[in-house]
């Protein structure tokens, strides 16, 4: 899966977790929590959705890589390189 596809996957998950958020102006370099009303449970929902959809394990020690969209996509790119892009 290409980085642009991974970004879309993360956006789709964010839309489900926080349906009232306007993601159209999301700045990929700014932490999610500075732009959205996400609590720790929402963050865990993101991790669980990635695990459920793509069977990837993200250890708690790696959560620091999921702070911004840029860092999330960079972290997930090697993990999802063989995953098919969403339809």
Helix content: 40-55%
**Strand-pairing-aware structural class:** mainly alpha
| β-sheet strand percentage | under 5%
Low-confidence parts, pLDDT < 50 over ≥5 residues?
A: none
Mean pLDDT: 93
Q: Helical region count?
A: 4
How would you spell out the order of helices and strands? HHHH
Ends: how far apart?
Answer: 12 Å
> Which fold does the CATH topology refer to?
Non-ribosomal Peptide Synthetase Peptidyl Carrier Protein, Chain A
Total number of distinct structural domains: 1
Oligomerization: single chain
How many strand segments?
A: 0
Shape: globular
Alpha carbon gyration radius: 12 Å
Which architecture would the CATH scheme give at its second level? Orthogonal Bundle
Question: According to CATH, what is the class?
Answer: Mainly Alpha
Largest sheet: none
GO molecular function: acyl binding; acyl carrier activity
Organism: Maioricimonas rarisocia
Pfam family, one: PP-binding
InterPro entries: ACP, ACP-like_sf, PP-bd_ACP
Q: What are the SSEs and their pairings?
A:
Blueprint: H1 3-17, H2 32-35, H3 40-54, H4 69-79
Helix pairs in contact: 1-3, 1-4
Plain-language structure description:
Residues 4-80 form the Carrier domain. One of its GO terms (biological process) is lipid A biosynthetic process. One of its GO terms (molecular function) is acyl carrier activity. This is Acyl carrier protein. Keywords: Phosphopantetheine, Phosphoprotein. This protein is mostly helical and 87 residues long. It has one domain: Non-ribosomal Peptide Synthetase Peptidyl Carrier Protein, Chain A, CATH 1.10.1200. It contains four helices and no strands. The chain has helices at 3-17, 32-35, 40-54, 69-79. Helix 1 (3-17) packs across helix 3 (40-54) and helix 1 crosses helix 4. The radius of gyration is 12 Å and the shape is globular. The termini are close together.
């Amino acid at each position: 899966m290409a980085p642009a596809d991974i970004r879309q996957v993360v956006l789709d998950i964010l839309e489900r977790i926080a349906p009232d958020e306007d993601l159209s102006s999301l700045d990929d370099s700014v932490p999610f929590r500075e732009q959205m009303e996400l609590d720790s449970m929402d963050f865990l929902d993101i991790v669980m959705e990635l695990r459920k959809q793509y069977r990837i394990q993200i250890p708690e020690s790696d959560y620091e890589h999921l702070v911004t969209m840029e860092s999330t996509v960079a972290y997930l790119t090697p993990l999802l390189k063989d995953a098919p892009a969403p339809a």
